[in-house]
Design a protein that fits this description.
The protein is mainly alpha-helical. The protein has one domain. 74% of the residues lie in helices and 0% in strands. It contains 3 helices and no strands. The longest helix is centred in the C-terminal third of the chain and has 22 residues.
């Protein structure tokens, strides 16, 4: 994926993850993009541990993998802030 698609994909994934984890009021657009992109990398790493593929394009599987990683990332950050 190109850089523009990574930004759009990351923003969408980060926004949905922040809605799931109830942190949307604390995050802005930029933080949603960052959470989504880092979450995609983390989700790809988690999936590689179980023998599956990571994020490979703009599709539902990649979205779910990135969402998993973003939710885990937000959970870790919330746990460290307490």
């Amino acid at each position: 994926m190109g850089i523009i698609l990574w930004i759009i994909f990351g923003g969408l994934v980060g926004w949905v993850a922040s809605m799931i984890m109830k942190t949307d009021a604390q995050q802005g657009i930029l933080l949603n993009v960052v959470v989504g992109i880092i979450g995609a990398a983390l989700g790809g790493w988690i999936m590689s541990l179980v023998g599956k593929g990571g994020v490979g394009g703009f599709n539902l599987y990649s979205f779910l993998v990135a969402l998993l990683g973003a939710v885990v990332l937000i959970w870790i950050v919330k746990a460290l802030r307490r």
